[in-house]
Amino acid sequence: MEKFKLAVSKREAKKPNQLRREGFLPATLYGRGVESENIQINAREFGRLPSGAHSHMIELDYDGKKVNAIIRGIQRQSTKDFVYNVELYKVALDRKLTVTVPLRLVGESAAIKLGAVLVENFQEAEIECLPGSIPEVIEVDMAHLAEVEDSIHFGQLKVADGVKILNPHDEIIVKVVAPKAAPTPKEAAAAAAAPAK
User: Fold this and answer.
1) Average pLDDT, stretch 130-147?
2) Same-domain check for residues 49 and 14
3) Domain membership flag for residue 58
4) Distance between CA 69 and CA 50 in Å, rounded?
5) Cα separation of 134 and 122, whole Å?
């Protein structure tokens, strides 16, 4: 798996808005049994991180020291894709973590080929594993959807040894339904606009 890297430095004694104007993101680095530290990240460099980095371990270059961390939170302005603050959690390589990773649909469904409609309930899974074992994605094999009303549950997912799925195993990730059972975009919009009874 690709290793994500990011340079960070101790936060300058400036107000957060001043840092942002100068092209830096205010951030916090904390972890189990360590004091929280105020740091700063080059906003452009942070923006270059692929979305996959947001749920995987990142190697920080903290003023010349290598620190393993994961992104625990990103505060954004709700109306724009503007980052205000980043929370980084320092990880120990021998201690398990709880993280969210994307699900990827793979393979072909016989039911969909015959006209059934896919209903997707989840795009991510919550897992527990060591930092070095975080998978990039977890695959959902669509071949299990052979007939209308077939579904795939979290308990059916295949993951590597040492990776534990925390979602309830009977929860449905995806299912296929008959075309008439799926509302058209027009029907869905009308239902959403209808006043609640």
Assistant:
1) 92
2) yes
3) yes
4) 16
5) 19
